[in-house]
Fold:
Amino acid sequence: MDAYAATLEAQLGGGVVTDLQVFGRLLPSPTPPALDVYPATPFQEPATYGPGRKALFFIVRARVNTPDIEGAQDTLLAMMDPSSAQSVEQALLADRTLGGVVQRLSLVEGPSEFGVFVDPDPRGGLAYLGCTWRTLVYV
Structure:
Protein backbone atom coordinates (compact mmCIF):
# COMPACT_ATOMS: atom_id res chain seq x y z
CA MET A 1 0.00 0.00 0.00
CA ASP A 2 2.96 2.28 0.60
CA ALA A 3 4.02 1.70 -3.01
CA TYR A 4 0.60 2.92 -4.16
CA ALA A 5 0.97 6.03 -2.01
CA ALA A 6 4.48 6.72 -3.32
CA THR A 7 3.32 6.36 -6.93
CA LEU A 8 0.27 8.58 -6.41
CA GLU A 9 2.32 11.18 -4.53
CA ALA A 10 4.96 11.23 -7.27
CA GLN A 11 2.37 11.66 -10.01
CA LEU A 12 -0.21 13.94 -8.36
CA GLY A 13 1.55 15.63 -5.43
CA GLY A 14 3.60 18.78 -5.63
CA GLY A 15 0.73 20.96 -6.77
CA VAL A 16 -0.80 18.83 -9.55
CA VAL A 17 -3.71 18.35 -7.15
CA THR A 18 -3.40 21.28 -4.75
CA ASP A 19 -2.69 20.29 -1.11
CA LEU A 20 -3.23 16.59 -1.82
CA GLN A 21 -2.87 14.26 1.17
CA VAL A 22 -1.84 10.72 0.18
CA PHE A 23 -1.80 7.86 2.68
CA GLY A 24 -0.86 4.23 2.07
CA ARG A 25 -3.41 2.91 4.57
CA LEU A 26 -7.05 3.52 5.42
CA LEU A 27 -7.20 7.14 6.57
CA PRO A 28 -10.19 7.76 8.85
CA SER A 29 -9.80 11.54 9.26
CA PRO A 30 -8.35 13.04 6.07
CA THR A 31 -7.38 16.58 5.26
CA PRO A 32 -9.00 16.73 1.81
CA PRO A 33 -8.35 16.46 -0.99
CA ALA A 34 -7.07 13.04 0.01
CA LEU A 35 -6.26 9.66 -1.46
CA ASP A 36 -5.96 6.54 0.64
CA VAL A 37 -5.39 2.89 -0.20
CA TYR A 38 -6.73 -0.17 1.60
CA PRO A 39 -7.53 -3.85 0.95
CA ALA A 40 -10.66 -4.57 -1.08
CA THR A 41 -13.19 -7.37 -0.68
CA PRO A 42 -12.15 -9.96 -1.65
CA PHE A 43 -8.55 -9.15 -0.84
CA GLN A 44 -6.72 -12.03 -2.49
CA GLU A 45 -7.06 -15.02 -4.71
CA PRO A 46 -4.60 -17.41 -6.32
CA ALA A 47 -3.05 -16.12 -9.52
CA THR A 48 -3.49 -18.23 -12.63
CA TYR A 49 0.22 -18.18 -13.46
CA GLY A 50 3.05 -19.58 -11.37
CA PRO A 51 2.89 -21.46 -8.08
CA GLY A 52 2.74 -19.25 -5.02
CA ARG A 53 1.68 -16.18 -6.99
CA LYS A 54 -1.22 -14.13 -5.64
CA ALA A 55 -3.66 -11.64 -7.07
CA LEU A 56 -4.33 -8.87 -4.53
CA PHE A 57 -7.18 -6.35 -4.74
CA PHE A 58 -6.97 -2.82 -3.33
CA ILE A 59 -9.27 0.19 -3.17
CA VAL A 60 -7.91 3.63 -3.98
CA ARG A 61 -10.29 6.20 -2.54
CA ALA A 62 -10.44 9.92 -3.32
CA ARG A 63 -12.21 12.29 -0.95
CA VAL A 64 -12.85 16.01 -1.04
CA ASN A 65 -14.31 18.42 1.49
CA THR A 66 -17.89 19.55 1.09
CA PRO A 67 -17.95 23.16 2.43
CA ASP A 68 -16.93 24.46 -1.03
CA ILE A 69 -19.16 21.99 -2.82
CA GLU A 70 -18.59 23.38 -6.33
CA GLY A 71 -14.80 23.51 -5.97
CA ALA A 72 -14.76 20.11 -4.27
CA GLN A 73 -16.75 18.53 -7.08
CA ASP A 74 -14.48 20.13 -9.69
CA THR A 75 -11.44 18.64 -7.94
CA LEU A 76 -13.06 15.21 -7.67
CA LEU A 77 -14.21 15.29 -11.30
CA ALA A 78 -10.67 16.17 -12.41
CA MET A 79 -9.32 13.18 -10.46
CA MET A 80 -11.97 10.96 -12.11
CA ASP A 81 -11.32 12.22 -15.66
CA PRO A 82 -8.86 9.85 -17.38
CA SER A 83 -7.69 12.63 -19.70
CA SER A 84 -7.03 15.17 -16.91
CA ALA A 85 -3.59 16.04 -15.54
CA GLN A 86 -5.10 15.22 -12.11
CA SER A 87 -6.28 11.75 -13.23
CA VAL A 88 -5.89 9.05 -10.59
CA GLU A 89 -6.16 6.43 -13.34
CA GLN A 90 -3.24 7.94 -15.26
CA ALA A 91 -1.21 8.24 -12.06
CA LEU A 92 -1.75 4.56 -11.23
CA LEU A 93 -1.04 3.31 -14.73
CA ALA A 94 2.09 5.46 -15.13
CA ASP A 95 4.08 2.80 -13.28
CA ARG A 96 2.32 -0.56 -13.41
CA THR A 97 4.95 -2.15 -11.16
CA LEU A 98 4.61 0.47 -8.39
CA GLY A 99 8.34 1.06 -8.39
CA GLY A 100 9.17 -2.62 -8.89
CA VAL A 101 7.19 -3.80 -5.84
CA VAL A 102 4.58 -5.80 -7.81
CA GLN A 103 4.56 -7.81 -11.04
CA ARG A 104 1.76 -5.75 -12.60
CA LEU A 105 -1.05 -3.39 -11.61
CA SER A 106 -4.39 -3.30 -13.41
CA LEU A 107 -7.42 -1.11 -12.93
CA VAL A 108 -10.39 -3.44 -12.40
CA GLU A 109 -13.18 -0.89 -12.06
CA GLY A 110 -13.77 2.72 -11.37
CA PRO A 111 -14.04 5.39 -10.77
CA SER A 112 -17.26 4.76 -8.91
CA GLU A 113 -20.05 7.28 -8.75
CA PHE A 114 -19.86 10.08 -6.18
CA GLY A 115 -20.48 8.77 -2.70
CA VAL A 116 -20.50 10.11 0.84
CA PHE A 117 -17.85 8.80 3.22
CA VAL A 118 -18.39 9.60 6.89
CA ASP A 119 -15.41 10.00 9.23
CA PRO A 120 -15.85 7.43 12.02
CA ASP A 121 -15.03 9.94 14.77
CA PRO A 122 -17.27 8.98 17.75
CA ARG A 123 -17.85 12.68 18.54
CA GLY A 124 -19.61 13.15 15.22
CA GLY A 125 -17.62 12.61 12.08
CA LEU A 126 -17.47 14.79 9.03
CA ALA A 127 -18.91 13.71 5.69
CA TYR A 128 -16.66 13.74 2.63
CA LEU A 129 -17.60 13.46 -1.01
CA GLY A 130 -15.57 10.84 -2.84
CA CYS A 131 -15.21 7.94 -5.22
CA THR A 132 -13.20 4.74 -5.47
CA TRP A 133 -11.15 2.70 -7.92
CA ARG A 134 -10.71 -1.05 -7.53
CA THR A 135 -7.27 -2.27 -8.53
CA LEU A 136 -5.54 -5.61 -8.91
CA VAL A 137 -1.86 -6.34 -8.45
CA TYR A 138 0.01 -9.56 -9.03
CA VAL A 139 2.75 -10.43 -6.58
Notes: The mean pLDDT is 92. Residues 2-138 form a domain with the STM4215-like fold (CATH 3.30.2000). The CA atoms of residues 102 and 139 lie 5 Å apart. Residues 69-80 form the longest helix (12 residues).
